[in-house]
Amino acid sequence: MTAATEQGAVLEMRSAFNPLTLWASLLFAVILGFSRLSYGMLLPGIQRAIGGSYGQLGTLGTVNFIGYLAGTLSLPLLIARFPGRRAAMNRASCLLLGLTLIGSAFSGRLVQLGLWRLATGWLSAFATVLVLSIALDAVRPEERGTASGLIWLGGSAGILLTGFLAPFAIDPARLQGWRHAWALMGAFGIVAACGFELSARKAAAHPAGSRPEPQQHDASERAYRLLLSPKKHLLLVASYFFFGWGYIIYFTYLIPYVTSKGVPTLYAGLIWSGIGFAGLFNGWIGGKAIDRWPSGHTLAIGLALGTLGAGGAIFDEMWVTVMGAAGVGLVSFITPPLMTTALLRRQVPHHAYAACLSLATAFFASGQIIGPIVGGAAVERYGLQAGVASSAIFMAIAAALAAWYGRQQRRERAEQA
């Protein structure tokens, strides 16, 4: 696809179930499940191989999300500088993401791993926004919530697969297992990137000039006005911020907490896989729900139930923690990102969507940067149980803000009636 063709190409409108959505879902297994959340599951194996305290390793999680934040903030500038090259940027970011996962597998020191985590975060931010915007552009508006659910469902599949790798990846008898796991994940990412690119080329139709695009500079300015105005979508992105804060604490320290209680690595992996398996239903149900009830109240319900699940660690009973983890996977692991994505796609202009999604993702990334710092401090002072349980506080704040946003939406509809 040439630069001229990319600039003017429009994707043919399709149903939510199409090859491009499928490849986007497979890419999200890499973007979310492999490149970001697999770190928490692999943490015990990484610590045994290259050392470091859980506080130090949690800081590397923060480094990852600093890269993620930098990526979300720089992407609108790149889109403005190179209008019409969205497909090329996506192609490069997805392929490089797979390569950085392979590179991470060769880390011998914490500093090396930190640099790879920084690069992985940066590239996953690019890929998140670009894959979603390209895939959803090809879907009919009334089915974009379902399509968003199917794409984010890939993240749950990634969690499921990494859980199955746990006995191989973090077993003390296999010191280098985590390296092999990351190398396999990176190779899968390269294959998925190629599949998405080929599918996007087939879906492209009506070249240059069939739909004029407003200038990206204006789109970026409008994104800031839309998302940072208390009367528009500030409450939605604030909820996304606190969700990022809470959920990353939970996923960073859950498996270390479980293994510290003497749970064998096989069972720890099954718990992780259980979250991913529950998330498969969450993606489908959440997408259908937000299409049927496109409101902040729908989002708030999932976040509130996830708060209860994350709070299960308070009771120091493993069965309660496991049931809580299943609840998090079922109702609030994938729901907030997919619903936020779908709500923005419904309520912001087409030409401003990529910039709005990038800015909202920057709020999400900011929460993910703060989360490991706060969670790491709680772990160092009060132990892993307190660190995991603290995630419920921030998810509760996210639920309250989402409910407030839903009330604001209802008031606006009443005023327009």
UniProtKB/TrEMBL annotation:
GO terms for cellular component: plasma membrane. It is found in: Cell membrane. Pfam families: MFS_4. It is a multi-pass membrane protein. Keywords: Membrane, Transmembrane, Transmembrane helix, Transport. PROSITE patterns: MFS (PS50850). InterPro entries: MFS_4, MFS_dom, MFS_trans_sf. Residues 21-410 form the Major facilitator superfamily (MFS) profile domain. One of its GO terms (molecular function) is transmembrane transporter activity. The chain crosses the membrane at residues 20-39, 59-80, 92-112, 118-138, 150-170, 182-200, 234-253, 265-285, 297-315, 321-344, 351-370, 382-405. This is Major facilitator superfamily (MFS) transporter. It comes from Paenibacillus pasadenensis. The lineage of its organism: Bacteria, Bacillati, Bacillota, Bacilli, Bacillales.
